[in-house]
Specification:
- The complex is a heterodimer of chains A (111) and B (113).
- Chain A has strands at 4-7, 10-14, 19-25, 31-37, 44-49, 55-58, 61-65, 71-76, 85-93, 96-101, 105-110.
- Chain A is an all-beta fold and 111 residues long.
- Chain A is globular and about 45 Å long.
- Chain B has strands at 4-7, 10-13, 19-25, 31-38, 42-49, 56-57, 65-67, 73-78, 87-94, 103-104, 108-112.
- In chain B, strands 2, 4, 5, 6, 9, 10 and 11 form a seven-stranded mixed β-sheet that branches.
- The chains are: A mainly beta (111), B mainly beta (113).
- Chains A and B meet through β4, β5, β9 and β10 of A and β4, β5, β9 and β10 of B.
Amino acid sequence: GQQVMQIPQYQHVQEGEDFTTYCNSSTTLSNIQWYKQRPGGHPVFLIQLVKSGEVKKQKRLTFQFGEAKKNSSLHITATQTTDVGTYFCALSNFGNEKLTFGTGTRLTIIP
Amino acid sequence: NAGVTQTPKFRVLKTGQSMTLLCAQDMNHEYMYWYRQDPGMGLRLIHYSVGEGTTAKGEVPDGYNVSRLKKQNFLLGLESAAPSQTSVYFCASSYLAVNTEAFFGQGTRLTVV
C-alpha cells in the first residue's frame, strides 16, 4: 500500500522562528493536500498541490510539491501562537479512492 | 451550514458492548470516510464509501463494520468493543477522492474500559 512518512513528528519553536514539515511518499502522487488540526479540534483543509514543482503561498505559509511528485513541504515563516497545532499531509491518486494521511507534525510555540 | 455532523461526541463503553457512530453530511458528497486518531499514529483509515450502497476497507478495518444506506449517512459499528478501540474517531466527506478537499466532523472520543 501507499506509504507516507512525515517528519519531524514534533517541533518546538520560539515564537518568531520558522518551521518546516516534510512529507515523503514511496510512490508518485497525483496530488497532495495539507490539513491543520488545532488542539482538541478536527483537521481543516489548507491547500492542494497538483503540478510538479508547484509552489503556493498563503500569507506566512509556503507549500511546495517536489519535481518528482513524491514529496512536499510546508514552511511557516515567523511563527505565531495561532500556528499551534498538528499539520498533516494527505495523499490520493487517480484510480485509488483512498485519502491517506501522514502521521502529522505537531507544532508547539514557546512564547 | 451543518457540514459534517458526528454523534455522539463522547462515549464510554465496557469491553464487549456494541455501539454505532453516526456521520451525517449535508453537502451531497459522494465519498465518506471513517478515521481513527491515536497519539503518534496520525489519522488511519478504517473504512470508506464511494457512494450510496458501497463500502470498502481501509488500513485498519478489523473489529469495525460500516453501512451507507443513504448518501448522506455513513455509520460505523463496533460489534464487540475492545480496549484497543479506545480512540478519537473522525468522519470525513468529499465530493471526489482526488482533487477535492475533505470536510471533517468534530470527532467522537470513545473510551473502552
